[in-house]
Protein 1
Amino acid sequence: MDSKPWKEQVVDLLYWRDTQRSGVVFGASLFLLLSLSVCSIVSVCAYVALALLSVTITFRIYKGILQAVQKSEEGHPFKMYLEQEVSVPGDVVHKYSEGALRHVNTGIKELRRLFLVEDLVDSLKFAILMWILTYIGALFNGLTLIIMALVGLFSWPIIYEKHQAQIDHYYGMVCSQVKDVVGKIQAKVPGMKAKAE
């Protein structure tokens, strides 16, 4: 793998800087998600494990036969990988678990604030979002949304990069229209004045 930070590697994947690597990641992820939409997760895991075992066992037998025919002493074909350390360091687990705990606590505090109506406008926005999600949930299941998000992640950056000027122009027009409508609604509904920025 590259010596770049992981965030740069993700950006390179999404912008298709290395088309072969991006294609493999996108194809494998899409294949896995489509498999999960057809079969249970237990079946998918079992089939993936069986496919991997089939490849490794076949390669091991092939190398064994090749060594017997050539009368060589190369040893186990996967010896290099068998001797590598594969444990997860405790400090890495601790670091990421602390980060996850921070995000969980922040999420809980935000949900408490929204559900207990600390700010009426934010709670109403959240209610509208949940109402919209009921319609989205009726149309799509979670796995379909994840598949659509994956396809969007791998296609949107390239589309935006190629058509940035047009997209920014139309996005600015939509934002100004939305601000005008929200401003009119906030002016007419009591208790919904815009927050001071």
Note: DSSP finds eight helices and no strands in the chain.
Protein 2
Amino acid sequence: MDEEYDVIVLGTGLKECILSGLLSVDGLKVLHMDRNDYYGGESTSLNLKQLWKRFKGEEDPPESLGASKEFNVDMIPKFMMANGVFVRVLIHTDVTKYLNFKAVDGSFVYNKGKIYKVPSNDVEALKSPLMGLFEKRRARKFFIYVQDYEDNDPKSHEGLDLNKITARDLISKYGLEDDTIDFIGHALALYFDDSYLDQPAMEIVKRMKLYAESLARFESGSPYIYPMYGLGELPQAFARLSAVYGGTYMLNKPDCKVVFDDDGKAIGVASEGEMAKCKKVVCDASYLSDKVKKVGRVARAICIMSHPIPDTNDSHSAQVILPQKQLGRKSDMYLFCCSYTHNVAPKGKYIAFVTTEAETDQPEVELKPGIDLLGPVDEIFFDIYDRYEPTNDHAADSCFISASYDPSTHFESTVIDVIEMYKKITGKELNLSVDLSAASAAAAEE
């Protein structure tokens, strides 16, 4: 261990593993350590016995739920947008060769007490029961504008400069109702709150186009894909990648401590009486708790079921977004469902998550609107965890700390944090111009 590295990464959470892989591919000498004896950190994947032990103590799970090893329950479940930035990262690093993807069956939104398919283009807008007849026509015109918009074709701009006008200005031009704006902003463009309405309109147009392009990619009912056997495969795939490029992995290294020089700059990591030197340290918040602040909490319910979420067209895998206004809350709620068709549970079993930014100390009460949509559940576990963000100056201490995972059930915000960290660590932009078809083979086979 007494060697010098360009970067030492602490923790094998998804963000840390992605960064470790990206930096290794860049030719940096990387040492990756974890105090745990398993991959994944907060974003690990548990079998049924591990899940039981974590939330119910020592008792054994009932045999009626099926074999423990057939469960792969992701603790931070997130779907990937088929044409999104994360899939580009997977292709850029060639990690796709270690993973098999399958398209996700459905993408839904909650509106006035019911679940609806998210309409993503002009044709679906006209069919959608989400809107009345006149609203459908207005929405169709808006979708056509977004679909036809091209940066380099001024004719498609219809005289609007999307970098200057706000999303609110653009949407008001089409006279859309609040409920329509709600599902477009939160379930299509995947914004967490309504502050986007006062930002330049270019961003919402790009996000809506990404959704539609991703949806068209596999012609399934959603724009999302998910790895077979769940996200637990991802950290290991990046670990393999790092090893191919000469990175070193060390699990089960207790008491990993970052060592600083007299000026407060990180110079290495000590564990079990040994020290590895480095120029930079990358880690999650748990390794440098004095350099982060608590910014919120995530409440979640983890459910094992014997049926799909009702009103989702029998989708074996699905996301349902419950926009904050529909619930009278400050933050959206998310339903995530996956099943034996993605090999995350035994045949006939489904795993569902209900997650949101906690606004109280009672997850059971707070998550009820989402849980009520699930129908009968075989088992339910409640959990609440703190969310942290870094407060340090990385230029001064050479420490690069990832923010905790938010409650959303898609990857878009997670990968933005990774790319921003990459830029800070390396001082350069990550080149993500890749051939997207490289990730389609496995997903399209199904």
Note: Residues 1 and 276 are 6 Å apart (CA to CA).
Protein 3
Amino acid sequence: MLLLLLGIIVLHVTVLVLLFVSTIVSQWLVNGGHTADLWQNCTSGSIFHCLTSSTNEWLQSVQAMMILSIIFSVLSLFLFFCQLFTLTKGGRFYVTGIFQILAGLCVMSGAAIFTVRHTDWHQASEGTSYGFAYILAWLAFPLALASGIIYIILRKRE
């Protein structure tokens, strides 16, 4: 049972790290020396220069979804530890699982909106590709859902 709890905690912390990195790092779109993310656009060359991102409504919704996913995941981890010590024997971690599933749905919504609308912000060119932070956001989605489902299925034992 201890090994199972350790595995669940490692999975949850992995999801949190993926969410933090994908939200913070400036690598959602990459085009040679130009990178763009949710917060700023950077150009590298002889001088590294960053400008604030656009104020498009869709970009602000992506920012909000990514921040909400982090909040839900942190809250879910906190609730898991609280329920671990207060839940009666045989009880399920429903609240923890629901918050983790909400985190997964938020990151999926944010990444999907970015996928559909990023051409409104940066015109598609031949060298433009998705960066690793964008891929990490999509990777966090199934891991968060799996973690949430595991929490819902999990029963507390002595």
Note: The beta strands are 29-31, 34-36, 40-43, 49-52, 129-130.
Protein 4
Amino acid sequence: MENLSLQDPPLSGSLAVTNNVPPPGPSQLPPQMFTTAAQLLDLTDKKLLLVLRDGRKLIGVLRSWDQFANLMLQDTVERIYTKDVYADIPRGIYIVRGENVLLLGEIDLDKDDYIPEPYRKVSPTEVHQLHVKEMQERKESDKFRQSKLQELGFEVEHNGEVLL
């Protein structure tokens, strides 16, 4: 994408008059400068990795989007990582609300099939069992940490749990 500014002369084929007379009305951004969800135009029909706010990782081909950056992915898979294993769960066509996207990046198709050294692909059920176990361990360690902080006088967050 070109680096353009408001002071650049208009492109050929533009409707502006070039007789050193400024165009009437407020200055307009050149059509090449997108400052909103229109930046997704370059990523349309490309394979993307999305990381959502809840931690899920989705891989799919961006087919459509709107002004709110809501995305429609085709041939989507959800990739779950736990320790040194991962699994891909096919999800098909997936619609993602724009405010839930934490990170978005294009996947290099030349390196798409490369799996980093410590990881190995296993069945989704095996990864799910390991993931549940890991979440339980994390919950217990968070509970221990929160009790220690509370002993020191810090207010702890309760992550939506019901306090009795």
Note: The first strand starts at residue 47 and ends at 52.
